[in-house]
Specification:
single chain, alpha+beta, 2 domains, binds zinc ion
Length: 573
């Protein structure tokens, strides 16, 4: 594990050697808005600026998207764990550097089951050159911030594996290692961005600022000729004169030797002659714009119609089921018929009396519906394996032609829709707010897509619910690795509405997989090919610098001091 030195500080030898900057790999991105020219063709994740710096106006004030709650250091160290997990080369800058991750299928290798048609062109990425500097609150100048100039610095991009081929600026070099003058990356606008208040290495409050240059479509990365057996990388070194080359950037490229499949059985529930209309392309889109990002292959292994109209004719159980959900339980507000999600005490009490047992307040109509539908299907179709079996690998997607809604949002004519629902069995080591999920009511491999999803994004709903079935929870829920503010990310496990019921900028574009979610999917048993117990925590990263070590010791010490203080307070107060 090489420990890389930072570029020299001002007053040292910077005039002859390499200036202070970092190289960042990005897919098309603008803060807080969906990109026009990226549609999930490959998997890519990095720490967005707005996640950790207060750059967006959220709830009337500038805030971070990740809930940082006064402990930025903890969040940053958790992010480092995620982004430096399972790699054998790290670069370590004194300033913050979060690497990006790329997930692409290998192409041109025989017998490899992958997504050759979509990653044949590889991934075309932007390159940003960052000059970050800290300025003390007193206005004292701390680090260099002069514009970069063409001083003969050369950037070398070098892949760690022969199967990774790099091209710059559309030149199709397809080489393992490429050199390109820095001047080619800084001949565009120099932009400025205030990142907000931060702490320097001596714990003084400072302003973090950034100058940056952005070069669109600057680098193309392809994996061809063979697969990657472990996580690989491209490291960027800056060279000038006879100085020691300096590491200025890195991107990790995920192993793609084993490709997992997600086996799907699609079931059209037919009631009153109706089924949910779907586009013909939905299978291709889910495979090539969503689940390919996690290097998994979405595969419909069977399609069928569960014809409740036909079965009702001779089967009273089916008839009763249809009568319950498409007649008795339906509400009618004059214009529309819908199932109302149970949300108030009176309803629960009524339901408990009706069913002669205490109804769990968490058992919403959708949870009850999905369980009954799944069990009915199991009995009528006599599927061999139990839905609760860990060995059963298929995931069952039911399309049910019924609307499920919460009561209208108070004082508005807005509905709150339930577009889909997944039966989700959480591992006990995920912390949920009490009563939010109740595992005995849920099994882990069925999804229902409801009627309103047709209007509001069937594809996004499908992917989202399947995400639950694969073991993922919402990005904004407590118990997640990070809590993101609802409606401020393009993550497929986010919601299209924010807390205040306004629309997310990413509505209809919730399609992005985060690295931690990909890691979690790999550690679940619901993808074909692996069967592992669900347990996912990132190990501690080894410390690489003496400063970090000292910092940690001090933090530990101050933690201990706090405890001693508290004990003393307890004893003496
Ligand atoms: Zn959900």
């Amino acid at each position: 594990m090489p420990n890389i030195k930072s570029s020299p500080k001002i007053g040292q030898s910077s005039s002859n050697c390499v200036r202070n900057f970092t190289v960042q790999f990005r897919r098309p991105y603008e803060i807080g808005i969906p990109p026009d020219n990226y549609n999930g063709e490959y998997g890519f994740d990095w720490v967005r600026d707005e996640y950790i710096y207060p750059l967006l106006s959220i709830g009337g004030k500038k805030d971070t998207v990740i809930d940082i709650l006064g402990t930025p250091r903890f969040v940053h160290s958790e992010l480092y764990k995620v982004f430096y997990h399972d790699v054998n080369t790290r670069i370590n800058f004194p300033s913050r550097y979060f690497p990006s991750w790329l997930y692409i299928f290998a192409t041109d290798c025989k017998g490899i089951y992958g997504s050759e048609e979509i990653n044949k062109q590889g991934a075309c990425l932007d390159i940003e050159i960052h000059q970050e500097y800290l300025e003390s609150i007193k206005g004292e100048y701390i680090e260099e911030k002069e514009a970069l100039t063409d001083n003969g610095t050369v950037l070398q991009f070098e892949a760690s594996n022969d199967n990774i081929k790099i091209s710059t600026f559309d030149n199709n070099q397809n080489a393992k290692s490429i050199e390109e003058p820095l001047s080619n990356f800084i001949n565009s606008n120099r932009n400025f961005m205030k990142l907000g208040l931060d702490y320097d290495e001596h714990n003084n409050l400072v302003e973090r600022n950034r100058y940056f240059y952005k070069k669109k479509s600057a680098i193309k990365i392809i994996c061809s000729g063979g697969t990657l057996k472990k996580n690989e990388h491209i490291i960027v070194k800056a060279k000038r004169n006879n100085c020691e080359p300096v590491d200025v950037g890195i991107i990790y490229i995920a192993r793609n030797e084993t490709i997992y499949t997600i086996n799907i059985v699609e079931i059209d529930v037919k009631v009153n002659g109706k089924i949910i209309p779907k586009s013909k392309n939905h299978e291709i889109e889910l495979r090539n714009k969503f689940f390919n990002q996690a290097l998994t292959v979405f595969k419909v292994v069977k399609k069928e119609v569960f014809d409740l109209d036909l079965l009702s004719v001779s089967d009273t159980e089916v008839k009763d089921f249809v009568d319950k959900w498409w007649n008795k339980r339906l509400k009618n507000d004059g214009k529309e018929k819908y199932l109302e999600v149970v949300s108030n005490k009176e309803e629960l009490l009524k339901l408990s009396i009706e069913r002669k047992k205490t109804v769990d307040p968490t058992e919403f109509a959708n949870a009850e519906f999905i369980r009954e539908l799944k069990e009915l299907y199991w009995r009528k179709k006599k599927v061999g394996l139990s839905p609760y079996s860990e060995i059963e690998r298929n995931t069952y997607i039911f399309f049910a032609p019924v609307s499920v809604r919460n009561a209208r949002v108070k004082d508005t004519d807005k509905w709150s829709y339930v577009l889909g629902s997944a039966s989700f069995k959480a591992h006990s080591n995920i912390l949920y707010s009490e009563g939010e999920y109740s595992s005995d009511q849920e099994f882990s491999n069925a999804v229902v897509i409801f009627k309103d999803s047709v209007e509001f994004g069937l594809l996004e709903t499908y992917a989202h619910e399947l995400g639950h079935a694969l073991g993922l929870t919402h990005t904004f829920e407590s118990g997640e690795m990070f809590i993101y503010k609802r409606g401020y990310t393009d993550n497929f496990m986010d919601y299209p509405q924010r807390e205040d019921n306004t629309d997310s900028k990413f509505i209809d574009r919730l399609s992005i997989f985060s690295k931690y979610q990909i890691d979690m999917i790999y550690n679940r048993s619901r993808v074909g090919g692996i069967l592992l117990p669900w347990k996912w925590t990132y190990p501690e990263l080894p410390l690489t610098t003496s400063e970090e070590k000292k910092e940690k010791e001090e933090e530990e010490k101050s933690g201990l001091d706090k405890i001693i203080d508290e004990i003393e307070k307890f004893i003496f107060d």
